[in-house]
Structure formats: C-alpha cells, structure tokens
Amino acid sequence: MMAFQIPYLAVAGLIIIGLYAVLFKRNLIKMIIGITLIESGVNLFLITLSFREGSTAPIYTSSPGGPMSLPVPQALTLTSIVIGVAVLALMLSLVIHIFKHYKTLDVRKIREEDN
Amino acid sequence: MFEQILTHAPALAVAIPLLGAFLTPLVSKINGKLRNVFVVIITALTSFIVALLSYNILAHESVKFAPDLVKNGIQTYIFGAGSAGDPVVRIVFEVDGVNAFMIILAAILPLAAVIYSWGFMKDETGQDKYYTLILLLTAGMLGMMMTGDLFNFFVFLEITSIASAALIAYRVNNKFSVQAAFKYIVVSTIGALFVLFAIAILYGQYDALNMAVIAKSIQYGLLDKIALILLIVALAMKAGIAPMHMWLPEAYGRAPSSVTVVIIGTTLGSFYGILRVGFTIFGEQIISESNLEVGIALGWVLVGLAILTIFIGVLMALKQNDFKKMIGFAAVAEIGYMVLAFGAALATMYQDSVTGITGISSSGLTALKGGMFHILNDALDVSLLFLVAGAVYYVSKESSLNRLGGLARNMKYTTIFFIIGLVAVSGLPPLNGFASKLMIYQSTYEINPILAIVAILCSILLLATFVKVFYAAFLGPKLPKFENVKEVPKSMLIGMLVLTCVIIFIGLFPNLVVENIVTPAVTALQNASAYIGGI
Amino acid sequence: MNWRVTAGGVFLIIVAAFLIYAALLSPTFGLKDSEGDYIERPMDQHIIDETQTQTGADNGVTAVVFDYRGFDTLGEATVLFTAVAGVIIIFRRLKK
Amino acid sequence: MSDAGMSKIVKTMTGVCFPFILIFGLYIIVHGHLTPGGGFQGGAVVASACAMILIAYGSIWTMKKIKEKHLSIFESLGALMFISLAFFGIFLADGIFFDNFLVKGAFSFFGLFANTATGVADINTAGVIPLMNIAVGLKVIAGLFAIVLVMAYATHKIKEVDDQ
C-alpha cells in the first residue's frame, strides 16, 4: 500500500522544497524558482490522479484499445501550466524593475535600503 | 426582452467585460476619448445586467421579471450544454442569494472606479492597457462570485491576482509600488496554488469539481479536513485576515486609488470563497450534531483571529503617516469586524434539546446578518475614502500627512465626501457603517460583553485616527504650496458621488436593505441543501 | 535565530506534515483497489465514453479543454491576455 | 548575448530551422482535436521558434521588425475570435454560451463525422473545437512572443544604463 504512494510523496517533496526556497532564500530569483517548484508539485499531483494502471492516453486516433486514463485532470493540468507561465512572466518583469531600482536582488539589502 | 437577457445573464455578466477587455486595445488605436466612453459603456452595461440578475433572484416572487428561471431562489447556467444538460460534467454557474448579494458590490465598485479614472488617469501613459486590466479585473471578480465550479473559481482567482499585481505596479518609477506588487503576487500565487492543491484533493476523493456535487458526497474524512484547512487558510491569506495581512496595506496604499477600489472587491471575493467553502461545501458537516464542538471551537478561533485583525489594523493605522497606507490598515480592521461576526455566529451554535436539531441561535443570526451587511458597507466606505485620498494625491502629488494641510478651502466637495466616508467607516450614526456595526455589537454583546466592548473601543480609536487625518490634511493653515490647488475634475467627483449616494441611501434606509438584500443572502448561506439541490 | 526564521521553520514543518499525511491518504496510485479492480470514476468515464458522439473530437483531453470545460479555457486564455497586458504596462514608456 | 545578435553560423542555422519548427507547431495546432496537442501546445512551439530568432538576431533587430503593439493587436484578435465562437452559441435557437453549435448538424462541413472506431479520423470534425484551437493558437503565439520580446528589450535597456 505504502509503496504505491511514492508519486504522492514526490508531490509532497516538491512542494516542501519549493516552500523552503520561498521562505528562506534571500535571492528573489530563487524565490521565484521556489514558486515554480510548488506549482510543478501541484501539477504532478493532478496528473498523478489521472493515471489508471495499464491505461493509454484518452485519444481515439490509432488507439490500441484498452482502458484510458482520465481526461479531466490532464485538461486541468494544461490550464494550470498556462496560468503558471503567465504568473512567472509577471513576477520576472517585477523582479527586473526591482533590480532597476535597487541594483540588487538580495532581500536583506533591499530591506536595509528601505529603512 | 428582459427575460432573454436574464436567461443568459450569468454568462453575459462575465462575458461582456471580457469582450470589452479584448476590444479595448483595438478601440484605443482609434481615439483615446472613444476608448474611455467605450469602457464606461461596457462597465455600465455589466452593472445593469448584474443588477437585473440580482434583482430577479432577490425580489419577491410576484415582482420578478422572469420567475421561471429562479428555482428555489437559485438560478443555474450550464455552459455549453444546449438543452440536454449534464451539469456534473460541465461548468455550472449557480447564483443563489449569497452570490446575488456579492455581485451587487461587483456592480457598483468598478463603475465608480472607471468614471473616476477618466479624470484621475488623464495625464498617465499606458491607459489602454490600464482600462483593459480594469475590465479583466471586473470580469474575474464577477466570475469568482458566481461560479459553481471549484476549478473555475481558481482560474478567476488567478485572473484577479495577475491583473491586480500588474495594476499595483502601475507607477513603476516608484520603487515601493513595484515592491508591493511583488509581495502581492508572491502571496496570492502561493495562496492560489494551495487552493488548487485542495481542489485536487477533493477531485481525487469524489471525482467531481462541481461545488454542489462535492457538497452532496462529502464524507468529512481526514483528507477532506486537510483540504478544508488548506482552502480556508489560503483564501484567508488572500482576504487579508491577520496574521497574513501584511501585503494588504502595502498593496492598497501603493496602487492608484481607482485600482484599489476594484482590488477591494476582489479581496471580498476571496472572503466570499471562505463563506462558500465553510457554509456550503462543508456546511452540513460543520453545522451538524456530530461536529457541534468542532464548529463551536472553529467559531472561537475565528473570533480570536478577528480580534487580532482589528487590533493590528487599528493600532497600525494610528501610527501611519502615509494617507493611503493608513486607510489600508483601517481596511484590515474592517475585515476583522466581518470575521468577528461570522465567528461569533458559529460560536453560538446549539443543539435543540427537544428536536435534537442543531442550528445557529437568534443572536448568532443577527451576527450573520450584521457580518453580511458589513461586507457591503465596508467595501463602499473604504472605497470612498481611497477615492478621496486619490483626489488629494491628484492635486498635491503628496501622500505623506506631514506635508499636507489646508486643503478644505479649495476642495469643498472632496472635503464633504471625506467627512461622509469618515463618519461611515467609523460607525457613527446616521450612515451605513453604524447600521451594520450596531448589529455586530448587539449580537456579540449577547455572546460575550467583552467582545462588544473591544469592538466598540477599536471603532472609537478608528474615529480618532480619521479625525487626526482630517485635521492634518484638510484643516489647518493654508500652505503656500497649495495656494493654487483647484477642485478635482468633474468625472472624479462623479465617481465619488456614486459611492456617496449608495452610502447615504443605505444609511437612511438600513431596514429596507437588511430585509430585501441581506436577509435572503443569510438564508441562502445557511441553506446548503438548497444549493446542493440546485443541480 | 531571529523570529522570522523560527516562524518560517514552524510553518514549513506544519505544512510538510500536512502534505505527507495527505500523500499517504490519497487514492491509490493507478486507481486499483485491493482486489485489482479499477476504482470507479463516473465523471471521467462519461467523458471517455461520450467524447466521440457528443463532440466529434477524437482527443478526449481537447474535448474537455474546449467543449466540456470550455469556459475554463476562456479563463485560461484571459489569464495569458492579462499577463501580456501586465508585462506591457510594466515596461511601458513613462513619458508621452 | 550581445545586442547585435549572435554569430553568422547561428543566424544561418536559425533561418534553416525556423520553417520546420513553424510547420510542426502549426500541425500541432490544426490537429489538436485528433492527436495529442492543441492550440496552447502548438502556440508555445511556434512562440519558441520566434524566441529562437529573438536570441539569434538580438532584441533591437527584432523590435525593428515587429513591435509589441502589433503583437498585442494579433492577440486581441485571437481572443476576440475565441469569445465570438463562444457567443455564437447563444444566438442559435435553444442555444447557450459555449454551445458547440457546429456539431449539432446545422453546418455539415464541420459536423460530427461519426467515426466511433479507433482508426484515423477526418480533420473537419468536432465542430468549433478546431476553430477554437486556431484562435487560441494565434493568441498564444502573439502573447508569448510579446512577453519574451518586451522583457528582452527592457533588459537590454537596463544594461545600457549600467554601462554608462
């Protein structure tokens, strides 16, 4: 039972690593990498839910037959990936502007300069 | 005519601002003025449809335009189903009393913001994208407040957070606004990802994304409880409840005022999400016999958080020197009052000794009504104050209170609007803030007098803060650098006037509003089984 | 150890415990129960069975994306549109 | 990456590869309802081809050829096409927003060519789905390329300020 839950544990691991990066890393780019890691974890979770043992992709063109994996989580993952790209683009542009103003990406130095 | 519009109203309310947003870049190629007119028309049309939809749901059976559409107080709209329908597979908009109440907000705030922007944004660059983003924000807010599908809720949540982050950073040459926008997007993205994770957990359990279907089949197992906690914590993060409120004053304070008004709406959209999750999806489980103690404990936790939120908001507002950040902290305190009301209502749950049925006591019911009413009032009052702060910034290009003074002589109307906002937000009679806060004080006093005393004290402190601001910015000696300031352009005055009219109307006829809008919303909020039966 | 690190660490540990717990409780990977039968998934099975007759698409995922959950895709396209508008507004020229 | 672009070898190879990537991306968009893929995926492929050109030739050169304003109009057009396809569903009898109206038999060209076997299907099936794929594809190409272009151009400007 436990051994089959490894993909879910990978999900938990990815999210924890990402959260660690967001909370403890001082570089803004590394924080953004952390957020994308959390997002990959959630996407992996969705796609894991869609898998049926021994199944093929839910596409009828030249399908070999047999059980098909679930289509809805795959569609949700697709949506969530595009949303992730959009958020990433906006965050990176904001970081470019922060760099323009402060000439650094270190959170501590930014905080020092504000005070 | 009305009936045809009403049939598609839930879809149109989201689709028309979206269509407007997609058209705005093309229209602004032609002419800047034409674009402004176009955006105002689109927003007004959206508000009209929303008002019609809301009226049709909340009004009494005999005066409805299309009574057939509303079954049991709920109008459903199944996307792409034709006449066959299969609501379980497709995306469903399910508009009940709570939604009809919330979308009234979403109809008023963007309209005021767009009219206000006409004058406020006159000299800025990038206006076409600005109006596009405002319309997208409106669409996202309306979608969030009407959808009956969990994943759809997540999508609209992301639309609002991306659009707000871009608009908070509108003044890119100010380093603080870029920083505030970055903070906002980090917090809201993490929140939204945890919302998605919780949705995935629920999907994995019940193979459904529809809120009503999940609510019907939910078993309240351990995994469901984890999903519940993740959802509520993540949405509370986005709604600005302490201790996760730090982004809110920054974001509210640094965004252009007209944007802040719409962002207030999206914040309350997240708050609506908490209500929907707590009262509908998990509603029958939380308000049930077996979980009575858990529910009461949850209520007290919420009360504690609310008191913390009010304290932090009021105390930080007292020591703020920046006009808009101060109003931002006041907004945090106001959110605390709403949480206080809902927490108090949960804390009064009891089990009837005769019938064995559990429910919320009568004072809890008053608290629910007060909290619901306060959502509307808070949004209007705080928005009006932000618009006044924006007007002050517009004429003086100053936001620090130390460098302002004597504006009342040259800006008569703005001063009047500020006084109205001040009286309303600090809960003085006769305006709307008093009506809802009185209900909250009354109900919390019956539960525990200390709570009511704390709430009243904080309200008085809030009043003191705003009176201080009034003296600093509007009264006092006329400063030489503000010798030549003029009243703000007419469109900005009209924007403020829209909100003021609604505030005065609610202040004069609170019973009318409570009976016709708030009570149906509270009834719908408690009635999870009707929502489930809507599918 | 300042308070930020401590609070962050506590928060991280709580979330980690939550997630690992959730991972162990999740539906079995591969969706088979202990007897080797598939766990029932009525909504998805309905889509797999009906996608060709209802939408005419051979690709089940595209059928979900554009037909069954088409409104989500409108939202998704809007998110991208929002991001483009946001990036352009952030990098706009500040002077007329 | 210097602003004048990369070496001549890279530029030539980019020119050779670009049409193939373009065709592959368009194939993914158009066959979205039959094979794995769709508007978003194919759009991302084409946009990455455009990003390749941006890297090879530098942002100044690319900005001279195409401005983000034009890309933003293309994106608006794609989004408009998508939402109008959704709106058409309302106007037909008994319709509803996002109705797949072409499948219902009113227009036989894009109708439901019942091919319930697991073989190979025709491209003109699935009603509005292929049209929506094309609309979304257009939108994603323009959108992603606009994002990359604007960010590349802006960072180049920052570098210029630093050098002074």
Task: Note down, in words, how this protein is organized.
Chain B is built from 20 helices and four strands. Chain B is mainly alpha-helical and 535 residues long. Chain B has a domain at 286-535. In chain B, the strands form two sheets. A two-stranded antiparallel ribbon of chain B has the order 1-2. A two-stranded antiparallel ribbon of chain B has the order 3-4. In chain B, a hairpin with a 6-residue loop joins strand 3 and strand 4. The longest helix of chain B has 35 residues, at 362-396. The two termini of chain B are 26 Å apart. By secondary structure, chain C is mainly alpha-helical. The termini of chain C are far apart. Chain D has 164 residues and is an all-alpha fold. In chain D, helix 2 (39-57) runs parallel beside helix 5 (129-163) and helix 3 packs across helix 5. The longest helix of chain D is centred in the last third of the chain and has 35 residues, at 129-163. The interface between A and D is medium-sized, with 17 and 18 residues.
Structural features:
heterotetramer, D: 164 residues, mainly alpha, 5 helices
Q: Would you report the number of β strands of chain A?
A: 0
Average residue-wise pLDDT of chain A: 86
Structural class of chain A: mainly alpha
Number of strands of chain B: 4
SSE topology string of chain A: HHHH
| Poorly predicted segments of chain A | none
Short description:
Chain A is mainly α. Chain A contains 4 helices and no strands.
Blueprint of the fold:
The complex is a heterotetramer of chains A (115), B (535), C (96) and D (164).
Chain A: H1 6-24, H2 28-49, H3 71-102, H4 107-114
Helix pairs in contact in A: 1-2, 2-3
Chain B: H1 2-30, H2 32-58, E1 75-78, E2 92-95, H3 97-120, H4 127-146, H5 150-168, H6 175-206, H7 211-217, H8 222-239, H9 247-254, H10 257-281, H11 283-286, H12 292-319, H13 323-347, E3 349-351, E4 358-360, H14 362-396, H15 412-425, H16 432-447, H17 449-474, H18 490-508, H19 510-526, H20 528-533
Antiparallel strand pairs in B: 1-2, 3-4
Chain C: H1 3-25, H2 42-55, H3 60-68, H4 70-90
Helix pairs in contact in C: 2-3, 3-4
